[in-house]
């Protein structure tokens, strides 16, 4: 591939303001102070009851050997925005922070840390933008895919989105996220090669149009392939497409593996029933009916309700673009920072809307499950030094509505954030996509079905520990006091 710079890499894939802030930290000599940043999203996408965490493998790839290349340095030197000594520093800089995250495929929720970066202010600040870029998109797509998997049950689910994706990166990584969320295969051959995702494909209308009739096209395909799925809707599904598919399947017998037919337009409930009848009567009860055409979980559910005889679902646009909600909206906030005396001070971001006030302090997310059957009880966000896994009982309350609370006993507490990168070294070996998909399905199984249903799911409890809550209230008080002082001072100066 031709690139403008042979040593190009992703380190400048960040917002300019990260670099301008870094220059300030550097010039003021605070760039090596310790800080903790956490990533979270405020509301679940698609009104779903959970999200599937994805994007970690690419984040780890990105962090490996992260550095400013010669052409990056040359580019920055030319830009008056950056000082020479700052750029000199970048030339020898290497990423040394620690990153904690859930395993890929983990079930995660809103308002809890889904990634934590601990290290120098400098390192943590630089990677905000790319990390959000990767996690926001891939988590969104894995979640959308999971919603589709929930609707189709055990039927086949194929990813067809590459042509409609927001460019090549989104197609590739979106496909991987879709697989994590439960898709069986992809039409994207590069994703197959790169990630080991099974590839699958039928054929396009072009084949039929080029031969100008269904029979000749299917026959040519059968002569050149063992596995065959014929696309039957180019001219008329029931009157020319399916009759031609049946004719070819009969003529070729065991010489081909007649997998079925694909419908890509029209009323797919009506058509699939007609197609099923014709295939059965022709002696092909095992031939499957594939369907595609702007499908999403809602259309699929409706088609199933109508008794459509569809066995395999091909989904493109609405999956790969997360059509009904194109952004997850995860944010990345500093929660603790070292002061001039070398002490860690927790920080808070205040907002007019209570939901947007950040949770200060370095935290761990504990997944609380029932000891008896492993079923989910909720997530418990605690300050880092708390040990809920060693407690006999746990008081859990909803931070937005503290009167919603419960005390639980006989529980297991599992920390969700695990060390993936330590002092700049990636220590986590990503499992295969198949293993990630299985892990995700197992995690989802532990969730009560009330949280899993696609429509109006129950809200999963994401609770704060008493200590984390008290800490937040105290910091809010401190900030109020600070704001009053500044306002008073300003008045006095007028
Ligand atoms: N029985 C059905 N119930 C609900 N939705 C359906 C049914 N059959 C098809 N659909 C959906 O309705 C939409 C039909 O879209 P559209 O009108 O663009 O398709 P078409 O005209 O049949 O085909 P095309 O224009 O692609 O040749 C698609 O999203 C399809 O998935
Ligand atoms: O509808 P989506 O969910 O986005 O799935 C992908 C679509 O891409 C193909 O159509 P296209 O018209 O691009 O090509 P074709 O000539 O093969 O039909 C395929 O037939 C699907 O309809
Ligand atoms: O293989 C298919 O049927 C396919 C691939 C990409 C897009 N639409 C359909």
TrEMBL record:
Q: What is its EC number?
A: 6.3.4.21
Pfam families, per database record: NAPRTase, NAPRTase_C, NAPRTase_N
* EC class: ligase
Q: Quick one: which pathway?
A: Cofactor biosynthesis; NAD(+) biosynthesis; nicotinate D-ribonucleotide from nicotinate: step 1/1
Q: Which UniProt keywords apply?
A: Glycosyltransferase, Ligase, Phosphoprotein, Pyridine nucleotide biosynthesis, Transferase
What does the record list as GO biological process?
NAD+ biosynthetic process via the salvage pathway
Q: Which GO terms describe its cellular component?
A: cytosol
Q: Where is the Nicotinate phosphoribosyltransferase N-terminal domain?
A: 12-136
Q: Which InterPro entries does the annotation name? A: Aldolase_TIM, N/Namide_PRibTrfase, NAPRTase_C, NAPRTase_N, Nic_PRibTrfase-Fam, Nic_PRibTrfase_pncB, Nicotinate_pribotase-like_C
Q: Which residues form the Nicotinate phosphoribosyltransferase C-terminal domain?
A: 362-471
By sequence similarity, the record places it as follows:
Belongs to the NAPRTase family.
- Role description: Catalyzes the first step in the biosynthesis of NAD from nicotinic acid, the ATP-dependent synthesis of beta-nicotinate D-ribonucleotide from nicotinate and 5-phospho-D-ribose 1-phosphate.
What is the official name of this protein in its record? Nicotinate phosphoribosyltransferase
Q: Which organism is it from?
A: Weissella diestrammenae
Q: What is the lineage of its organism?
A: Bacteria, Bacillati, Bacillota, Bacilli, Lactobacillales
């Amino acid at each position: 591939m031709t690139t403008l710079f042979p040593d190009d890499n992703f380190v400048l894939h960040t917002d300019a303001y990260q670099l301008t802030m870094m220059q300030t930290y550097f010039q003021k000599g605070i760039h090596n102070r310790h800080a903790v940043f956490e990533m979270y999203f405020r509301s679940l996408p698609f009104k779903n009851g959970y999200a599937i965490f994805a994007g970690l493998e690419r984040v780890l790839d990105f962090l490996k050997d992260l550095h400013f290349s010669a052409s990056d340095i040359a580019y920055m030197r030319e830009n008056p925005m950056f000082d020479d000594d700052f750029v000199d520093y970048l030339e020898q800089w290497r990423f040394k922070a620690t990153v904690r995250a859930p395993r890929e495929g983990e079930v995660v929720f809103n308002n809890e840390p889904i990634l934590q970066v601990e290290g120098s202010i400098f390192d943590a600040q630089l990677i905000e933008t790319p990390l959000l870029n990767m996690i926001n998109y891939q988590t969104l797509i894995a979640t959308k895919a999971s919603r589709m998997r929930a609707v189709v049950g055990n039927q086949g689910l194929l990813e067809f989105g590459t042509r409609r994706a927001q460019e090549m990166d989104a197609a590739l990584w979106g496909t991987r996220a879709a697989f994590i969320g439960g898709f069986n295969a992809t039409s994207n051959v590069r994703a197959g090669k790169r990630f080991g995702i099974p590839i699958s494909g039928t054929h396009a209308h072009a084949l039929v149009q080029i031969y100008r009739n269904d029979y000749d096209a299917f026959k040519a395909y059968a002569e050149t392939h063992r596995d065959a799925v014929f696309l039957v809707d180019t001219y008329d599904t029931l009157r020319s497409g399916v009759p031609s598919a049946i004719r070819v399947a009969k003529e070729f017998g065991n010489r081909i593996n007649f997998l079925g037919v694909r419908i890509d337009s029209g009323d797919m409930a009506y058509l699939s029933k007609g197609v099923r009848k014709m295939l059965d009567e022709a002696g092909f009860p095992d031939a499957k009916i594939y369907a595609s055409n702007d499908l999403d979980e809602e259309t699929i559910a409706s088609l199933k309700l109508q008794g459509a005889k569809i066995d395999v679902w091909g989904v493109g646009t609405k999956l790969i673009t997360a059509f009904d909600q194109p952004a997850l909206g995860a944010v990345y906030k500093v929660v603790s920072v070292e002061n001039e005396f070398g002490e860690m001070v927790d920080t808070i971001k205040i907002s007019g809307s209570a939901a947007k006030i950040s949770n200060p302090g370095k935290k761990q997310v504990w997944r609380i499950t029932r000891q008896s059957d492993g079923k989910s009880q909720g997530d418990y966000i605690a300050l880092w030094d708390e040990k809920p896994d060693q407690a006999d009982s746990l008081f859990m309350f909803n931070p937005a509505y503290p009167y919603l609370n419960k005390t639980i006993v006989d529980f297991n507490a599992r920390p969700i954030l695990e060390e993936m990168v330590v002092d700049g070294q990636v220590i986590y070996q990503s499992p295969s996509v198949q293993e990630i998909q299985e892990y995700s399905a197992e995690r989802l199984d532990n969730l009560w079905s009330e949280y899993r249903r696609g429509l109006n799911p129950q809200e999963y409890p994401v609770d704060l520990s008493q200590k984390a809550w008290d800490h937040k209230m105290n910091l809010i008080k401190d900030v109020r006091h600070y704001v009053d002082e500044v306002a008073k001072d300003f008045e006095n100066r007028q």
